Amino acid sequence: MYDRVIQLAGSFAAGALASGALLAFAAGGPPSNVVAPRSMAARPAAVPLPAVAGASRLGLLRNEAASGDELSNWQLSNALFDRYDASGEADDLYEALIWMERRRDVSGNAQLIARVVDRYCGQRVVRWHWFCVEGE
């Protein structure tokens, strides 16, 4: 028992000595380059979303939608549907459907579902989707 107490006291003393030495060297060192944070007014304004190029805008929306942002998900789905309308690329239509299905708030999808049913149910990518199958 006595040996254990001596061992703990020795460990504590060694740790205290090492910590004291580190603090002594740190206090005598050169000052760190600490800069006060800038005020909110001095920060540069964020780039507005429409000013960003098309592909990077979709990338930003994908990142935000993947993190669970419902508005970004809705905007991404609309942007992909618009891109499909312009280019006819089936990958855009398929990706828009995938993002639309990932939304938790299905009631917010009413406009998108109506768009799919009105415009895209004849497309091969969407033909057998549950939005387009009658009786489902």
TrEMBL record:
Keywords: Signal. Residues 1-26 form the signal peptide. This is Sel1 repeat family protein. The lineage of its organism: Bacteria, Pseudomonadati, Pseudomonadota, Betaproteobacteria, Burkholderiales.
